[in-house]
Design goal:
The structure holds two protein chains of two kinds. By secondary structure, chain A is of the alpha/beta class. Chain A has a domain of about 70 residues. In chain A, strands 1-15-14-13-16-11-12 form a seven-stranded mixed β-sheet, sandwiched between helices. Chain B is an all-alpha fold. Chain B has one domain. Helix content of chain B is about 65%, strand content about 0%. Chain B starts with a helix and ends with a helix. Classes of the chains: A alpha/beta, B mainly alpha.
């Protein structure tokens, strides 16, 4: 029987342009690109040059630290160009796709004959280990790590995020195979929402299932970890997103790496918000082709959802971990007079000094990207804790990170958190602090100090 | 149209422009008029519509009922003392004319200093003083001279706020520090019986009263052992002498409702303060101490003096109060209990709320420390058990 956790703290609200549950295929693109910056914490070492021919599943770069983790190409083709930024930092590897796709064959895989070590080696070589992340530090998992568990969250409650239940339709067997493979390496915990209890995803005997009910961020894997088996200093936990678990299942079944994803295209600026089947690294221009409304004001393309996603553009490519693309109004061309004292009847706010509390839960809002206020010192107390469902004093942790007090950060639980856990707190913050960036930089500094 | 005007004059305030020394003033005015349309570049793409300006302006709105009633009360006390009949509007206008200079001085001095400091630090001015600037005139007696008020505001803004880093960084409530400064530096003008009723006429409104005229507040009367002349109804509606904004429980209650409903003030702190005060008052009532102030019924304690005003507007100041949710209960309770205790046991001065809040401001971090530390210990124990 699954254990039920009732999450009370958090915030749910609806945005305009939620993707309808209908799947369309995108015709293959000419060009794909992988960005090493998507794999946070990894210093990449290139193993291809411009002009090399690669297969789908053959490595483009490896991690400099151990050279064990392969980061592979989603398609077969020619390496068109390698983009670098300041101080020769690797930004992007562009691949011109072949008309006829070939994939590297990793051979048939009989799970019964695989030990944990052998499974890990297969994942490292096939480029699927690259998708694993770890706590502490919320970075790409280290190859030498010995995790105490692997956590998968099978749902997300972020606004406009893709629904895994829909994405997994007809792929449930691959998901279950993927979990079976992961179970060889460490104990697997899966977090599901109450709506998924009767879905085809279950039963999965190899994993321990927990049900999490409640508002966003009840779908965050960090929240699940904190409730089921919190990370103590010195421990390591791996996390894998559910669709990436399907990648593993596909590899076991076919012997080939298939990075096809079903992403949600959503947001108020999208003509027909639907789900698209495409590959990791596909061009945003192809994903959004002919699907944007007429441009009457500036727009923001987001690689991800509006709370956690990254600012993107038409020239960009689908990120490695990205499950949705959202397009919403930018707002930098809006001039609002005396906004702070205006009724603002169409704006969403958790504060009852506005009027969104009068409308029900089903009202859909269309916010733009304006910060709507200057950055201030922290004034109100309890704002973060109200939407932070972990047994951690979020306000005190943020202050410890801001002051660089590492001992205090450790004492308050920095090893358990990831920037995405602070996304809702950043949204409601009246002081407009960039909490996710602060936590990200704090974690990076901590990792450097501990090395 | 306003945007075009702002765009046109902005270059004067940039680096090298001839008015660049007033940049902080320009930025303050600009964000006052137009919502900045900077968009987020990292982290969340969308934001809640709430911001510091909205919060502060709602606190000011919550203060308005008490302020308006206080203005009326000034007129009422003056006309009553002179024995002259007058209409509601006359009394209100008189009180308004007496209070307005104080408000203007408070904002002018306070905001002036804040703009200078913001300019010097190259930061945007923060909105904390919007509230403090209105609170300070409301907690001084009506007889307070303007020059005294100006010095107190300057002292408070510089030494109780800016040297700590500005809004959000202070330990002590700046409005109460201003009041405490006046109390200790000019005690003759801040307490006693001659300061609670306005004695001069302005522009033909109001009545001149003899300089020697005295009228004690109910708390002052109890403190000196005399019988309390205001009825309980008078205490609740606020028709009694006192500091400008603190007399009317009903007006303050309207403000409390606004603050609690919008969740800007914590109900935990507010309710605990009343409970602490009621309990202390009750214990003194049954303790057998025979002074008039000890035997003042506990419910009268809650509606006289600055207790109500302090509980609703001062104790709940988010920056200086306890910041953990459980800490707020203890913080509020101790403020209420301490305020009544100081009133009863202190022979020299009848009011205890200001001192109680300032004292607890000092101990709020200590209260929080215990709760945060217990969380830290729980985590450490969990790590050790692994």
């Amino acid at each position: 029987m699954e254990r039920l956790y009732k999450i009370k703290k958090g915030l749910d609200f609806k945005l305009e342009g939620e993707a309808l549950f209908s799947l369309h295929k995108v015709s293959p693109s000419h060009e794909y690109a992988i960005a090493p910056t998507d794999f946070h914490g990894v210093v990449p070492r290139l193993v291809v040059k411009e002009g090399d021919h690669v297969l789908a599943g053959s490595p483009l770069f490896v991690d400099k630290a151990t050279e064990k983790i392969h980061f592979v190409s989603p398609v077969s083709g020619k390496v068109k160009s390698i983009e670098r930024g300041e101080r020769r930092k690797l930004l992007r590897i562009r691949i011109e796709a072949d008309k006829v796709q070939e994939a590297k064959d990793f051979g048939p895989c009989d799970l019964n004959k695989y030990s944990g070590e052998k499974m890990k080696r297969l994942l490292l070589e096939s480029g699927l280990f690259a998708f694993f992340r770890q706590r502490p530090y919320d970075i790409t998992a280290e190859a030498e790590g010995e995790p105490k568990a692997i956590f998968i969250s099978a749902f997300s409650k972020m606004p406009l995020a893709a629904s895994f239940s829909f994405v997994a339709q007809d792929q449930e067997e691959d998901f279950k195979t993927g979990v079976k493979a992961l179970a060889k390496m460490a104990k697997v915990y899966i977090g599901i929402s109450p709506e998924q209890i009767n879905s085809q995803l279950l039963p999965i005997p190899e994993a321990e299932i927990s049900v999490f009910s409640g508002p966003n961020p009840s779908g965050n894997v960090g929240v699940h970890i904190n409730h089921v088996s919190p990370v103590n200093k010195g421990e390591v936990v791996w996390t894998l997103s559910p669709e990436e678990t399907i990648f593993v299942g596909r590899l076991i079944r076919t012997g080939k790496v298939d990075l096809t994803r079903r992403i949600a295209v959503a947001g108020s600026e999208v003509k027909t918000p639907v789900y698209l089947e495409t590959k990791v690294g596909a061009p945003v221009a192809d994903i959004l082709k002919n699907n944007l409304k007429e441009e009457t004001h500036h727009r923001r393309i987001i690689d991800g959802n509006p709370l956690v996603g990254r600012k993107s553009s038409m020239e960009d490519f689908l990120g490695a971990h990205t499950t949705e693309i959202c397009v919403i109004p930018e707002g930098d061309d809006v001039h609002e007079l005396f906004g702070w004292i205006a009724p603002r009847l169409n704006e969403f706010s958790t504060s009852r000094s506005y009027f969104s509390w009068l409308s029900g839960k089903s009202k859909e809002y269309n916010p733009d990207c304006r910060i709507k206020g200057g950055q201030r010192h922290i004034i109100m107390s309890g704002e973060y804790d109200r939407v932070f469902p972990m047994d951690i004093y979020a306000g005190y942790l943020v202050k410890a990170v801001l002051t660089g007090d590492i001992d205090r950060q450790e004492a308050l639980g920095i090893y358990e958190v990831a920037p995405e856990d602070f996304a809702v707190a950043e949204f409601v913050d009246s002081s407009k602090l960039e909490l996710q960036r602060i936590i990200r930089e704090g974690l990076d500094l901590l990792r450097k100090e501990n090395a | 149209m306003i945007k075009n005007f702002l765009d046109k004059i902005r270059p004067n305030f940039e680096e090298g422009g001839k008015l660049s020394a007033f940049r902080s003033v320009f930025e303050g005015m600009e964000t006052f008029l137009m919502v900045p349309n900077t968009t987020s570049q990292v982290g969340v793409s969308i934001h809640d519509a709430i911001d510091s300006k909205r919060i502060m302006s709602f606190v000011v709105i919550a203060l308005l009922p008490a302020l308006l009633f206080g203005m009326f009360n000034i007129g009422y006390q003056n006309y009553q003392a002179a024995g002259v009949e007058a209409g509601f509007l006359t009394m209100f206008l008189y009180g308004f004319m007496v209070t307005l200079p104080k408000i203007v001085v408070s904002y002018a001095v306070g905001l002036g200093i804040e703009f200078v400091v913001a300019q010097w630090k190259h930061e945007e001015i923060q909105e904390g003083y919007l509230v403090t600037g209105l609170l300070i005139p409301m907690i001084v007696p009506v007889g307070c001279p303007l020059w005294m008020l100006a010095i107190a505001v300057a002292f408070s803004v510089i030494f109780a706020k800016e040297i700590y880093g500005g809004t959000g960084m202070n330990i002590f409530n700046p409005a109460l520090v201003a009041r405490a400064f006046l109390f200790f530096a000019y005690p003759g003008k801040m307490s006693g019986d001659s300061v609670w009723v306005s004695k001069e006429s302005i522009f033909g409104l109001g009545n001149d009263l003899p300089d020697a005229f005295t009228m004690a507040t109910p708390l002052g009367e109890a403190g000196s052992g005399a019988a309390v002349t205001s009825s309980f109804t008078d205490m609740v509606t606020g028709l009694m002498p006192g500091s400008i904004g603190e007399t009317s429980v009903i007006a303050i209650a309207i403000g409390a409702a606004i603050l609690l409903w919008t969740r800007i003030a914590s109900w935990k702190t507010m309710v605990s303060t009343f409970i602490g005060g009621a309990l202390a008052g009750f214990l003194f009532n049954v303790s057998g101490i025979d002074t008039a102030i000890a035997q003042m019924p506990w419910y009268e304690h809650l509606v006289t003096g600055g207790f109500c005003f302090g509980a609703v507007f001062m104790a709940t100041d988010p920056v200086t109060s306890a910041r953990t949710e459980n800490g707020k209960y203890i913080y509020g309770f101790l403020i209420g209990a301490l305020a009544i205790t100081i009133r009863v046991l202190n022979p020299g001065y009848a009011e205890g709320m200001m001192l109680a809040i300032l004292f607890m401001n000092m101990f709020a971090p200590l209260i929080d420390y215990f709760f945060v530390q217990s969380n830290i210990n729980k985590r450490a124990k969990r790590a050790k058990l692994q």
